[in-house]
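Inverse folding, one chain.
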């Protein structure tokens, strides 16, 4: 690389772009990795070669590239951020796309699976469709200009050869810019290029992804270009027999030598690919551009389809030059067999391995008639032969044969359409939002209509309950499908029932139109048994009519702790609470007679009226018992000291007022370690 091109590295262009390193170099420009210091983002900076920057026409084309692509808005097109000039440097700031090019992927993999190839070509066509909608033609679609970013990103790069469709006829006469391996026949014969030329290149690109090789190869770029004129692109299955006929059809409709037989633009071709992926048949492909006996042969086995690896950036990879093929002097619009390369052997970029016709070059070609062999001669005397012409009778028979084939195909297509083709099935959209369901139905070629809503206890409001016709039903293309949206459940206001008895609460819930489930009980120290404590939902809440209401009912006060108390106290509590005491003698306890030593259920348990509570009651064994000091009238602290000195444990039961012991329990004698409960209050 010369010093001139490396000069920008380390420079800050226009006070904004800091050039960091070189990514790729082409025949017209070099692409650098740069940092936009103003917006703090990484960009790819395409800088025109200084020696070309002195050509006013080239500069205009270079600037026109930025203007053409800047109008495009597509996730599948490398975005142009800025264009400017500083001194002799003219640059374009573009989106930086990390990752390999499609050329590098093909070089590593050879060929791709049908699913991978269709996934990539769909995204390529989506980018070209955005360009065609804006009136921009790429004119140099090839694997080097397809960038595969991180994840599933596929972006079309380098619209350096693009022209606005309105100005395409203003291209300089006698020059055609493009890459020979992907040139459409009309670009070679008449310098004409439109959206269908990009479709042709996309078809060649699909063929190469499916087979791992290009359809036409030759010793020179011109040889490749002329093969596109005189030979059809072979069926991909002739190279890879595992491919289905539908893929052959997709390649064929895009690579017809007659532009009128191709899809009108990238969007139409993209639609055809999507139809095939959905299982829809394509219209019959009539190759009426084929002369009798001129069926092309598949490329020789082992022909490499991948060229030298290019930088995986939105680089000027197509700017390796341009192929400029001269029009026929007689304007006949036909092209003969390829003449020798003008000026001797073609010189390809360093590195080798790139099939002829895979680079963009500038090759002037001229022809002079008058040689006795019936052909033409180039400017240096190389023979240029006329295309093969069939005898008139043979052409007549061939044309009739084509008509018969067309008639059969039309009849078969019509029968299929009447029986199956005009119908489709209603997709399942239940559970989707109405807007999403409408979009899915529209994408399936149906006419969605939102009908009257219905209440549903299972489908949330705003989602689709069902369709009319039902999902899976047969319906004609463009037929009307009525969506039934959910209005949600019927809601009822929950009445206030807290504080009512269970029977009253259940009657109130039923009267409001709601259901109730089995009530649950909960102990309460303040709410009597059988009274509703709480509800779910709370009062005045809007509640679905079919969803049961939960009632929580008080079971009364929790079971007290009787352990350490006299049986008489427990019996009094049981009488007040409505439950029954079952006293069981405990002969092993050293507690005073009548003292409760255990209970079941445990303290704090829920207890209902009539339930039996079992208490273990000490029989009052006298062995080892000592007298309990009389602490009546003592202060709390004196009483505790006296009892503890006698070997007893002390439990204090404080009254509301007072500071002296009013009573204690048990009295008399007890075994050491017995707990004595003292009552403190006014004496």
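Residues assigned per position:
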């Amino acid at each position: 690389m010369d010093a001139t091109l490396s000069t920008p590295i380390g420079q800050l262009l226009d006070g904004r772009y800091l050039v960091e390193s070189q990514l790729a170099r082409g025949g017209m420009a070099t692409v650098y990795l740069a940092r936009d210091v103003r917006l703090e983002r990484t960009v790819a900076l395409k800088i025109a070669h200084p020696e070309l920057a002195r050509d006013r026409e080239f500069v205009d084309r270079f600037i026109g590239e930025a203007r053409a692509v800047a109008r495009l808005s597509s996730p599948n097109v490398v975005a142009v951020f800025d264009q400017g000039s500083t001194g002799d440097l003219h640059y374009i700031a573009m989106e930086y796309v990390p990752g390999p090019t499609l050329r590098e992927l093909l070089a590593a993999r050879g060929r791709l699976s049908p699913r991978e190839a269709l996934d990539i070509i769909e995204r390529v066509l989506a980018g070209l469709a955005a360009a065609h909608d804006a009136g921009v033609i790429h004119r140099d679609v090839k694997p080097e200009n397809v960038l595969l970013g991180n994840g599933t990103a596929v972006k079309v790069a380098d619209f350096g050869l693009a022209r606005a469709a309105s100005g395409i006829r203003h291209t300089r006469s006698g020059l055609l810019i493009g890459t020979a391996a992907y040139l459409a026949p009309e670009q070679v014969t008449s310098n004409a290029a439109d959206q269908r030329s990009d479709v042709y290149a996309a078809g060649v690109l699909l063929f190469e992804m499916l087979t791992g090789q290009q359809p036409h190869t030759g010793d020179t770029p011109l040889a490749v270009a002329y093969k596109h004129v005189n030979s059809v692109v072979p069926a991909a299955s002739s190279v890879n027999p595992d491919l289905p006929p539908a893929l052959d059809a997709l390649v064929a409709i895009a690579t017809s030598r007659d532009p009128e037989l191709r899809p009108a633009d990238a969007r139409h071709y993209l639609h055809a690919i999507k139809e095939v992926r959905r299982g829809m048949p394509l219209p019959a492909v009539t190759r009426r551009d084929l002369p009798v006996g001129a069926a092309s042969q598949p490329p020789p086995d082992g022909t490499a389809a991948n060229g030298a690896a290019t930088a995986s950036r939105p680089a000027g990879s197509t700017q390796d030059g341009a192929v400029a093929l001269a029009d026929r002097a007689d304007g006949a619009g036909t092209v003969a067999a390829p003449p020798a390369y003008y000026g001797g052997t073609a010189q390809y970029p360093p590195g080798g391995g790139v099939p002829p016709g895979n680079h963009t070059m500038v090759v002037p070609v001229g022809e002079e008639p008058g040689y006795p062999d019936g052909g033409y001669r180039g400017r240096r005397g190389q023979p240029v032969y006329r295309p093969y012409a069939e005898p008139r009778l043979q052409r007549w028979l061939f044309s009739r044969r084509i008509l018969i084939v067309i008639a059969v195909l039309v009849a078969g297509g019509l029968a299929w359409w009447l029986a199956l083709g005009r119908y489709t099935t209603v997709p399942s959209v239940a559970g989707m939002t109405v807007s999403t369901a409408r979009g899915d139905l529209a994408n399936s070629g149906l006419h969605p209509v939102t009908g009257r809503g219905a209440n549903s206890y299972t489908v949330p409001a705003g989602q689709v309950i069902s369709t009319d016709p039902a999902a899976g039903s047969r319906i004609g293309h463009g037929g009307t499908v009525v969506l039934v949206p959910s209005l949600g459940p019927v809601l009822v206001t929950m009445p206030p029932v807290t504080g009512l008895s269970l029977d009253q609460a259940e009657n109130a819930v039923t009267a409001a139109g709601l259901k109730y489930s089995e009530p649950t009980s909960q102990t309460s120290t303040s709410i009597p048994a059988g009274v509703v404590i709480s509800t779910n939902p709370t009062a005045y809440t809007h509640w679905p009519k079919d969803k049961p209401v939960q009632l929580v009912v008080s079971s009364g006060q929790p079971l007290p702790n009787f352990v350490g108390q006299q049986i008489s106290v427990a019996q009094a509590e049981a009488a007040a609470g409505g439950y029954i005491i079952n006293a069981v003698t405990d002969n092993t306890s050293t507690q005073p007679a009548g003292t409760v030593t255990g209970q079941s259920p445990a303290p704090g348990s829920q207890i209902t009226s009539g339930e039996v509570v079992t208490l273990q009651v000490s029989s009052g064994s006298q062995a080892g018992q000592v007298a309990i000091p009389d602490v009546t009238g003592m202060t709390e602290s004196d009483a505790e000291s006296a009892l503890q000195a006698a070997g007893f444990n002390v439990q204090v039961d404080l009254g509301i007022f007072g500071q002296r012991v009013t009573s204690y329990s048990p009295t008399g004698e007890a075994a050491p370690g017995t707990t004595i409960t003292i009552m403190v209050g006014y004496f």
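The radius of gyration is 47 Å. The longest strand covers residues 17-25.
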